[in-house]
Amino acid sequence: MRNKRRFIFHSLFFVLLIIISFQTQAWSAEPSKVLKLDDITVREQSNRVSPPPPSATILTGEELQDIHVDKTLYLLEKIPGVAIKDYCQGAVASQFVMRGLRLGHNTGAAIFVDGVPLNESTSHGDGYADFNVVIPEDIAYVEVIKGPSSALYGQFARAGVVNIVTKRKGDFSLYKFGFGDWDRQRFAMSTGHEDGALSKVFGVELYRREGATENSGWLRGNVAGKFTYDFNEDLTGSLALNLNSMEWDAPEYLTQDQWDAKDYWSGKPQGGGEKYRYGGSANLTYDVTDDDFVNLMFYAYRSNLTRYRDKDTHADEEYHDRDIYGGSASYVWNTLLGNMENSLTVGIDAQLELTHTINAENVSMVRTAREDVTVDGDSTLNTYSVFFQNQLTPTEAWTITVGGRYDHMDGKLKDNLDGIKTDMEDQDIFSPKAAVEFTPLAGYTVFATYGEGFKLPNGFDKFKYPDLESEEYKQYELGLKLNPIQSFQATLTGFILDVEDEIVTDVAAGTKVNEGNTRRKGIELELNYYPMDHLELYGNASYTKGEYRDYVDKGTDYSGSDIDLIPDWIFSFGAQWKPPEGFFAGFDYRYVGEGYKTKYEVGYAGSKKKTIDYWVADAQIGYQYKNYSVTLDATNIFDKRYPAYESGSTFRTANPRGFFVTCSLSY
User: Fold this and answer.
1) Which entry of 172, 316, 323, 451 is 20 to 30 Å from 270 by CA?
2) pTM for the model
3) Of 378, 252, 384, which is closest to residue 323 (Cα–Cα)?
4) pLDDT (tens digit, 9 = 90+) per residue, 314-323?
5) What does DSSP assign to residue 268?
6) 631 strand-pairing partners
7) 3-state secondary structure 393-448
8) How far apart are CA 106 and CA 86, in angstroms?
9) Which helix or strand (DSSP H or E) is residue 260 part of?
């Protein structure tokens, strides 16, 4: 692999830098731009903050601590209706499906880590977001919100929100070392220490693999340092520093003929790349009274993504250099209006994003040796937002939430090849939100929600087509939450997600227009049952149907047909036995159904396409002795052959049966 020494040097240098920082005084605060870590419980929010919509799922750090995943993205498989489509391209952000939207490179979902957005505009996929920058052991909780339901989030939140909050306080230590098939090794640690008013949390992850397929090696390093200082009982300050550095190789995708011939492990080199991301955030939280607080946050990050595609005779380079600066201010007020409980959240967001993009041939894979540059542009995107969300409880049985968000976006593009500068047409969008919850009996809640969202034109289309407007997303939910006894929880949600003014290509006019309309609808079920101490039984299931309603793209009328290749059924079930000491075990059985394509271009004479459905089973067994544990994770235990990723004509084979041993020390 290229530049291994540089990767190791960068990783060790920043580890040393963070360790040195531990010896100095620093500030830190609450983990997100609105929510407070001390107000989070296992499955619900404290009444000090405005909670997420009823259909949201929260995964706690305790639930995730014993899970082994090669990629942090895989944690989302615990969410109903989510299917991972892994490109198996190392550090290239993969794809997941949620609410019937295929989120290539994780676009279409707003991804936040401690209030800092991961999504990138005008980068490799509009909304590109890479979960690999997050250390799983460093997570306090993950909040997954479905669809454009929350007023706290705007751009990219059309399929939903993944809000990751990391550990900030506590005295704890967790060290892990593991090894497995395909020359995999992983070291991770997450430690915290409270020293009076100062709290320090430090996380490290180092990961290496060669891969089940040839030319699929990957090196990944993450370092995080977070410092929290309580100036007094009302004021808390914060500083968080993060580094991510990765290098990888990638094989070519398989053709249909190779897949049909069961040539699953062909590993002809395609290219690879390297990526780094570093920066930090700071915030202040001030309790004005016992009933309200203010939170201020500022962040700055720099990232670089370089990809190469080797096509035997030449290598295409794709280069994205990105700087992001932003901040937010939020005010949360909890009070009584008459005898009614009321919680109000208001805030503002601002962000500046600077991206330099280059596409060129680069046979030597050295930046100074680029040839035949086809794209060289500098883009600027400004976002300013104002939002509010208010939850009112007029009686013990009724809860009403209303909210709204106003987003303004403008930008500029400089084409460095021809020297032309282009202004983006300003986008001004208001997105209302609302929810009603009715609890006639304790443990039984019926809910309904409504939310609107939007999507800007992709990439440079923001500047190239000045007449384009944003796509409009409208979601309706109706559901039931059950918690009749403490050991049983269930959520059943039905949804409709309508998209209007989708951007399609008008062949006759030779441009792009807002003329497409689609609908996605489905039902999701989530169950958790604890029949006895230390034993959890769980399951989730979803059915999704997508339809082109009024949709003509590139001269082909797709109206009335299924949306391409969205899995219909997704469900999983499993169990986990985890006593404080002794043997523990678990298993998970997961099914991803077929996705169909029923409409094709004029003159298409090939076979009708549908994705391959599959079952995959994973298991875990281990032993806990005091603070020590040894765990064996077995993935794909029946050694099924199924595609980790599948497009209309190419495939990427999922890993065969694999084993990974992890040794842990926690105290």
Assistant:
1) 323
2) 0.90
3) 378
4) 688 999 999 9
5) -
6) 622, 662
7) ECCCCEEEEEEEEEEEEEEEEEECCCCEEEECCCEEEEEEEEEEEEEEECCEEEEE
8) 10
9) helix 256-260
